[in-house]
Amino acid sequence: MTGVILANFQLGEGQRPTVLLHGFLGTGRNLRSLAAAWSAADPSRRFLLPDLTGHGTSPPLPPGATLSSMAADVVETARAAGLEGPLDFVGHSLGGRVSLAASLAAPGDVASVTLLDITPGPIPPGLSESGKVLEKLRAAPARAADRKAMREELTGRGLSGPLSDWLLMNLEPAPEGGVRWRFDREALGEFHARMNGEQLWNALARPGMPVRCIRGGRAAYVSDDDVARMEALDCPVDTLPNAGHFVHVDEPDALLRWLLRG
């Protein structure tokens, strides 16, 4: 299992290597607050927060990229960063699916998997919130005069102000002036369709690979049927009733208490 080195940063000075993986269209910075709070509460951990392939300032997605190839990049990056031994993977949304893919492709590199509001099963197109955002993002222009102009493009297509501001973190100066998107929207769109269709239930059927999940009570990504199937495969599932899909944003304190029990 070989990959490329991703943009990343670390928090904590402990000996227990823990990889935090963000969701689709995000970056490692999205989980910085979680890592800082967790490190303060549990100094035994050392956290690695990469920008997944095709996201942030990491290398672009290659043609035909899969969850397994993305997982290989994460493992390669962790080893290059000096993390030794089996890794605890904690992933939100896409990051959770990459974590499961890593446990299947390189089980010796994975100590455990923690899923933040995501299921191992395929995600129906109508359910994917990121798919709806991506559709509007792909309809926006490739560049704009400035961030304000691009923000108006996004909000004009129905995206909320806070969501637009989050997406604008992916802008960079354009050589011809103004700003442009740092990521390849078309490549991300093609990958998104493949990623959502991948079947990862086999990761829960492996003996000796602890997997647990926490879902947002106001989100729809992990259904009651998913919970029943996951728990039948010895993957306990807990719910944060007041959280949506971004459990680490909506209920950070409750999420941290849950993580510390693991």
UniProtKB/TrEMBL annotation:
- The membrane spanning regions, by residue number, are none
AB hydrolase-1 domain: residues covered: 19-256
UniProt keyword annotation of NAD present: no
Write down the SUPFAM superfamilies for this protein, in alphabetical order: alpha/beta-Hydrolases
User: Mind telling me which InterPro entries this protein's record contains?
Assistant: AB_hydrolase_1 (IPR000073), AB_hydrolase_fold (IPR029058), Serine_prot/Carboxylest_S33 (IPR051601)
GO molecular function terms here? hydrolase activity
UniProtKB keywords: Hydrolase
Tell me if Hydrolase is a UniProt keyword of this record: yes
The entry sums up its family as follows: Belongs to the peptidase S33 family.
Q: What's the protein name?
A: AB hydrolase-1 domain-containing protein
Organism this protein belongs to: Cystobacter fuscus (strain ATCC 25194 / DSM 2262 / NBRC 100088 / M29)
